[in-house]
Automatic annotation (TrEMBL):
<dbReference type="GO" id="GO:0071111">
    <property type="term" value="F:cyclic-guanylate-specific phosphodiesterase activity"/>
</dbReference>
<dbReference type="InterPro" id="IPR006675">
    <property type="entry name" value="HDIG_dom"/>
</dbReference>
<feature type="transmembrane region" description="Helical">
    <location>
        <begin position="131"/>
        <end position="149"/>
    </location>
</feature>
<dbReference type="InterPro" id="IPR006674">
    <property type="entry name" value="HD_domain"/>
</dbReference>
<feature type="transmembrane region" description="Helical">
    <location>
        <begin position="197"/>
        <end position="215"/>
    </location>
</feature>
<feature type="transmembrane region" description="Helical">
    <location>
        <begin position="57"/>
        <end position="77"/>
    </location>
</feature>
<dbReference type="Pfam" id="PF13487">
    <property type="entry name" value="HD_5"/>
</dbReference>
<dbReference type="InterPro" id="IPR037522">
    <property type="entry name" value="HD_GYP_dom"/>
</dbReference>
<keyword id="KW-1133">Transmembrane helix</keyword>
<dbReference type="InterPro" id="IPR003607">
    <property type="entry name" value="HD/PDEase_dom"/>
</dbReference>
<dbReference type="InterPro" id="IPR052020">
    <property type="entry name" value="Cyclic_di-GMP/3'3'-cGAMP_PDE"/>
</dbReference>
<feature type="transmembrane region" description="Helical">
    <location>
        <begin position="169"/>
        <end position="191"/>
    </location>
</feature>
<keyword id="KW-0812">Transmembrane</keyword>
<feature type="transmembrane region" description="Helical">
    <location>
        <begin position="32"/>
        <end position="50"/>
    </location>
</feature>
<feature type="domain" description="HD-GYP">
    <location>
        <begin position="220"/>
        <end position="415"/>
    </location>
</feature>
<feature type="domain" description="HD">
    <location>
        <begin position="242"/>
        <end position="364"/>
    </location>
</feature>
<keyword id="KW-0378">Hydrolase</keyword>
Amino acid sequence: MDAVPARARGYVAAVALLTVLCLLPLPAGHTPWGALGLLAALCAVCEHAVRRRFGGTFYPVLLAGAFLLPPAAAALVPVPAGLLSPVAHRPALPRRVWRAAQPALAVWAASRVHGTLGGRDAVAGSDFPHALLPAGAAVLAFCLVLTVLDGGLRAAVGLVPPRRAWRGLLARSLAPVAVHGLAGLMMAVLWRSPYGPVAALLVLLPMCVSWWVFAQYHRERAAHQATIRALVQAVDIKDGYTRGHSERVGHASVLIARELGMDDERVEVLRFAGILHDVGKLGVPTRLLRKNGPLTPEERRIIELHPEYGHEMVRGISFLGEARAAILHHHERLDGSGYPYGLAGDRIPECARIVAVADAFDAMTSTRCYSRARPVEAAVAELERCAGKHFDPRMVGALVRALARSGWHPAVTADEPAQDTPTAGRAADSGAPR
């Protein structure tokens, strides 16, 4: 997203102002500037390395600052890392301000809770297990602030409906941040020990190992993404009239899934399902995909095998999960008139009902060699007309609401001019109502 909406800018500015207010009571004479500077530098180095390699955030140093420093000083630890971080999209300033202000407020809250519960005295005296309770409360406060701020930004940007902006954020962040919090507590205890900051840095070694393990997972996932891209490109080359169709169906499937309140992991699976729904065309003879004129009944039956071909192709890709069912059943219809198995109603997997609506919508709003693109409003009206017969009304309603809020701006658009020669056979494989 290259542009930042005005209300998102206002939200970021409000968070930044609140951060400044938290920093104002910084006592010049009682601030451990040496520890603050070292932690801020270490945070900047770790953040740069982690963001560049994984795109994530490294919390142990931030939480160590919350356990060691007073609130106003602890809030300064992430500021240099956020303001100096590289930004891939413009405008850079609000993005950098957000990266500095959000963790600063979270660390301030964690330090405030930790100090109120006597945590700094427990850390200084290496008082276990009494040091664990204040640290746990501080980690919870840290997660709560991150969740509140993240959800607010998602609502301001318009990524999800406001009522669902905070759903699942706390549950997903609590476990990993708790692990980082334990590492931060160990850093703080060693920092206060006779061995000093050098010993505290040793805590980062096991964290580096865990990030290395994560890197292997990241590379494996990148390989999966590359495989998916290669399959889609192969389909686009073989059946050029659908070029870009797969990505757009994936985008529309994501809109529907988010509107239905699905969690991020399932939304990603639905994106894969939309992108790969036509991969079975690789098993259909090219002469049929490119045939001008009507298809014979036998040729139509061959083309209608492409969902089964696709399901066989992706059967061994375990991370696709329920996307495989969507690939197999995305041409089923609610009234049982679809293919390949003529399933009806709830017997059609939910993911397939989502992709079916996304597929039909893009088929109607894209210029094809046998028809010109319909306006979005006309396509929506046709989907609503066929809801309950061909398509699940719940999925149609979700797409309509998502389009009303964010419009239809797919990353890939169909700009092929319509040809004069009709290709009636293509309608057999189109997701549009017939």
